[in-house]
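INTERNAL AUDIT FORM
Audit reference: QA-55
Scope: verify that the stored structure record matches its stored sequence.
Auditor: D.O.
Record contents follow.
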Amino acid sequence: MKKFLYLLTSFSLLFVHGLSLAADNDKATVASKTLSNSPLNSTALVETLLGLGTVLAIIVLLAWLIRRTGRFQGSANGEIKMIAGLPLGTRERAVLLEVDGERILVGVTPQQIRTLHVLGQNNPNQQSKKSEAFDHHLQDILNQDKS
């Protein structure tokens, strides 16, 4: 994700630099941008507002992407994973963590973090059995509809 952000920033800077070079090469635009005209005209205002809107839209889009992917959550070298979080109030949350394969439910408030329950080891066999049972149940329902 960091590489993506770095590439996006680099390309946007190159794009802006290319636009400025293209504007400087055009002699007519250089001559028209002297102070003989008022700098506070409607065209300049529209260009400024469009540029500001574009920058704000890019910031919102990047923030949404980062939040959606969850890439920038602290992970302590992959040993601690945040599996789920549930808001309980305006500033309180219940968070399910996985530490070295063990799941821990913690309560988080602005003042403290407290262990609520230790769920034990994560058993992948149990999850696969549940998914197989669901698959069979779904297959039975689909077969009943065909009959």
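Auditor finding: record pair retrieved intact. The chain has two domains: 2-30+40-69, 77-147.
Action required: none
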